[in-house]
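Hello,

Following up on my earlier ticket. Below are the two sequence lines again, exactly as submitted.
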Amino acid sequence: MQIRIEHATAYSYDEPVRYAVQELRLTPVDTRGQKIVDWRIEAPGIERAGTWIDGFGNRVHLISQNGDHGGLLIRASGLVETANCDGIVGHLPNMPPAGVFARVTALTEADRAIEALAAGFRGRHRDPIALYHALMAAIRERMKFDTGHTDATTTAAAALKAGHGVCQDFAHIFLAICRRLGLPARYVTGYLVADEGEAEVEANHAWVEAEVAGLGWVGFDPANGICPDEHYVRLACGLDATTAAPVRGIRRGAGPDRLEVRVTLKVPTEQ
Amino acid sequence: MYSTVPDRYFDEMVAPDGSVRPAYRQIADWLRSQTRKDLRQTAANAEGIFRRLGITFAVYGSDQSNERLIPFDIIPRILSAAEWRRLERGIEQRVRALNAFLHDIYHRQEIIRAGRVPEKLIVLNSAFCPEMLGHDPARGVYTHIIGIDLVRVSENEFYVLEDNLRTPSGVSYMIEDREAMLRLVPELFARYRVAPVESYPEHLRRTLQSVAPPGCKGDPTIVVLTPGIYNSAFFEHSFLADEMGIELCQGDDLFVDDGFVYMRTTQKPKRVDVVYRRIDDDFLDPLTFRRDSTLGVPGLFSAYRAGNVTIVNAPGTGIADDKAVYTYVPQIIEFYTGEKPLLSNVPTYNCANEEERAYVLDHLEELVVKEVHGSGGYGMLVGPTSTKKERTEFARRIKARPHNYIVQPTLALSTCPTFVESGIAPRHVDLRPFVLVGDQIRITPGGLTRVALKNGSLVVNSSQGGGTKDTWILED
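Thanks for your patience. The regenerated structure is below:
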């Protein structure tokens, strides 16, 4: 399947901001299930940006704005060819040893409820695929997918307690349980196209990847209870939503701001 | 005149049979030639010098004035050329191994694959910095500026108490103590050939220059980044910047543009190649680390990852001087150098191990308990001088959070003659030599000797009433 992606991130400030820096993790890589046909990032100063590959295999760009400005528009777009590989991504380059992904972060810390949930999965390491599917089912049983209850800073524990959340929260709960069990798992951000045609979606999608002996890393989408297929495009990964964030910035100046993210996904109809 | 406790503690000056050790002969003669009044006068002069130099030290948690002079003792601590050579070899081996360890931990983690260090101890450790994964700093050096704390327990036995690999301080005292001694007792320097320590700032500058990013053309621009005047070591930050002839900056003086770091100047911004930061990792860059930090520079760490600036010491070096990782340093040295460690670790009990914990709880009176993430002598129990109440409290804490504590035997720290109220008396000392790692390893012949001024005290930290002494390394 071919998916055309347009991902715009727009900041606007009520009062001029004199200094802002952003890290962009907006460059997808080829995997077994996706081939990047073309891709570009448009942002102020992108051609002079500092760039490197971070510890999780993500290409990062560092852009900055010095001097008063009222806003910022970052646009990533391109065409990706996808195929269904039953979620298997195998081993990607520039990745740290798997054990690093067992590290607990502020967003994936376990509380009693997560610990209790994790306890039910102890001793089931032998069939990891079954374990991860059961884990997705358990999360979906307890969580209702809807927006407005959680935000970017909501922890796994808080989301589980609320019983509501978005894909980020489902992914964090999955990670918190895995890490409680000592199993490495990572946060993945990307795009999910519903079906053929054109769709504007509210934001990026998020899911997880866990290690399965013999297969390497395999994707699981706890919000939808399936392994990613040809409808998914993988963008970046990390320990949690913070480290994998497509755009992460900081600015000087106290005025309020608005952040608008618009993702448009198109599946060109076959000629 | 000077009486030691020969059966319990090694004395730096006097051997158990009462004879003076060769390195101290002229000092002993000099001390004999001085009346108590003479010494008191010299001590008073010393205080005058330090007041003029303005060396103060802020002490956290003390109610009264929070800035004071660190007491200085006028009797130097002396090591022979042969003793120093042994220490030097051991220190060099240690810092090489620790840098190799840091590189490995942030790359393939061979030492974990080989089963020499437990994976959980590293990847779950709060001192481990995942943001550093896969980064290759200039010349592969992670920890450039190091202060290794050593204690001596006998003629030939030195132990490493801790490796300070993050932002060690105290080097300004080493230099100022020497300057004071040269003024106070010039006649002693005529009788001894003492290795100079004054070249430290020049060696520091060369070290910093040598680790500029490979893309830097011409003379690199270096700055010292300080949290500001309220930091306990601010004097040292400004002292070192001054001595090296480079700018002392605060976070606001620097900014990132197009992936490079710049310093604001009265003319146009100047690109900065090397940042010698004296700000802790957490506060270094609010974009990557603590978002509420106002001390750091937004984007500094990103510019570092882009290879456009060198941060000295690298973020994440704390994983190698973490107190729980410390117990593995002997294995770390063997793994990366293929050699036996030349300097010993203090034997350390692991409270997470049930048997060892039981022993510890039964013997708290003889042991020293330290918090894994503590420093500066805070949150520590010294068994032999503790009260029953303190021991009960620590026993409770160890049981509640065994991973949070390491426990060591109370070391019989060596004593050194020290001028106190009652005259010249033995007081316990340690030693912090300073090491620089860049294009080469430079170890300043000397260091900071800290002395516990209270009779019988084994805690030398300045925050706990310790003082300093000039440290003389004799040349052959």
